[in-house]
Design brief:
By secondary structure, this protein is mainly alpha-helical. 68% of the residues lie in helices and 0% in strands.
């Protein structure tokens, strides 16, 4: 080595020295450092390295990205190439699925794995740069955009985007998730689009209502998310708006839709009694906001929201109000009823209580639940006169409703389902069972439902 260094041609010996150093495993200089980071892949040209990646599953590539920062950088470059995009960004979202096939599940699993890959590759980047890179990668997928798909009801695009986002942001703190929400909201100009649907006549922008509903439900509120995550995203969606607009937006996202075209059915709660299926989404959303996971909502906030919801787009039938409260759970139901008792709205409270008994009868709930709820509400009244006034209103409501329904039957007001007579039948049974449970309670006997 010394004699070589003193020769008249210094370049050749130095080249020879580098070669011998590689053979002996010396790690001085930038090239050996890159070699140690790339391992055996150092010997492969970049084109061959990317060809090897085509034979690996997305999960395997994801594991490979954790080997070193150098390999992670190569993978980031690979994902951005045309061949990498074709390989990783599957877009067969509209392929018809045969009964029992796993096509839909397969592409969802693929985007879960892709979310984890990009999460790992961008681990060392600031949140804003991570989001910009992810957007650059996904920007070519039209079905991930609010107006990008011509047939969103029959497309798995939003669902795939949702599971991708869910995996990508798992474990991020609230500040980072705030940035994610703001980034997505600005990217799709969603603030202006939501403003359009909450301020215009219900149903006048049906296509936009549908797309906002699907984007919120399948991307931000991806099915399978933890309750705390769902509460966070739903809060971000609703909180920027006044209460009346919150209620309108809640109905757009979770209200009943037409099975034919998926559009929101605005008249459902006004035209007649509805079923549990039509109200379950709204009830689940109310429970989520009332729960401990939604820290930014008070009980008064949720009660006000339910009050506003019950007049969207016009005042609901009282039976539908009662059914929503039953589905929302004991806590919110009692809080809602107690607020009316405290505010002296005895007549309205009595009507709601009667309709709760009617819903219990129709939907086969235990009637002793309604009686116990009434008993609990009675303890809210501060004076005996207020409690007795409420009980009198309750009995008057039963009597007036029975007379109105009987009059409708005697007047021959019947439709194909003979609903007038059926309503009278249910109300008579509801009143009988309601008072039977009160008698059991008064006589110290066990209720029929408990003994059953």
């Amino acid at each position: 080595m010394t004699s070589s260094a003193g020769s008249g041609c210094p370049s050749a010996p130095r080249q020879k020295q580098r070669r011998s150093g590689r053979r002996s495993g010396h790690t001085s200089g930038r090239e050996p450092q890159a070699q140690s980071a790339l391992g055996d892949f150092q010997t492969l040209p970049l084109e061959i390295f990317q060809m090897v990646l085509n034979y690996l599953s997305v999960k395997d590539i994801s594991m490979l990205s954790m080997v070193s920062k150098t390999i992670s950088g190569l993978l980031i470059n690979y994902i951005s190439t045309s061949s990498g995009s074709r390989r990783l960004l599957l877009q067969d979202f509209h392929r018809p699925q045969l009964p029992g096939s796993r096509g839909g599940a397969s592409i969802l699993e693929h985007y879960k794995a892709l979310g984890l890959l990009l999460k790992r590759c961008t681990l060392l980047l600031p949140t804003r740069d991570r989001l910009k890179y992810v957007h650059k990668v996904l920007s070519g997928v039209s079905c991930f955009k609010l107006n990008g798909c011509a047939s969103p009801l029959h497309c798995l695009g939003f669902q795939c985007y949702g599971v991708f986002l869910q995996i990508l942001t798992a474990g991020w703190d609230e500040l980072e998730c705030h940035r994610v929400f703001n980034f997505l909201w600005e990217l799709g100009n969603l603030a202006q689009k939501v403003q359009t649907v909450v301020s215009s006549k219900p149903g006048s922008s049906r296509r936009l209502e549908l797309r906002i509903r699907l984007f919120c439900r399948e991307v931000l509120l991806s099915p399978g998310s933890r309750r705390s995550d769902s509460a966070f995203w739903l809060t971000r969606i609703l909180k920027p708006w006044p209460m009346v607009n919150q209620a309108r937006l809640l109905y757009i996202i979770f209200g009943p839709v037409s099975p034919r075209d998926g559009h929101v059915v605005w008249q459902k709660m006004i035209e007649g009694p509805t079923d549990e299926t039509s109200l379950k989404g709204l009830a689940d959303a109310v429970k989520l906001l009332y729960g401990t996971e939604a820290r930014e909502w008070t009980a008064d906030d949720v009660i006000s929201l339910v009050d506003e919801l019950s007049v969207i787009p016009q005042e609901w039938l009282m039976e539908n109000n009662a059914r929503l409260l039953l589905l929302s759970g004991n806590s919110i139901c009692f809080t809602f009823l107690a607020s009316k008792a405290v505010n002296g709205r005895a007549v309205e409270l009595a009507r709601l209580m009667v309709f709760m008994a009617l819903v219990c009868e129709k939907d086969l709930y235990c009637m002793d639940w309604a009686v116990k709820m009434m008993q609990k509400v009675c303890k809210v009244f501060s004076t005996a006169w207020e409690k007795n006034n409420f009980l009198q209103c309750l009995e008057d409501t039963f009597a007036h409703m029975l007379m109105d329904m009987l009059q409708a039957v005697l007047a021959g007001e019947r439709d194909e389902e003979d609903s007038s007579f059926l309503n009278l039948f249910h109300l008579v049974n509801a009143q009988a069972n309601f008072h039977k449970e009160i008698l059991y309670m008064a006589m110290g006997s066990s209720s029929s439902s408990s003994s059953a």
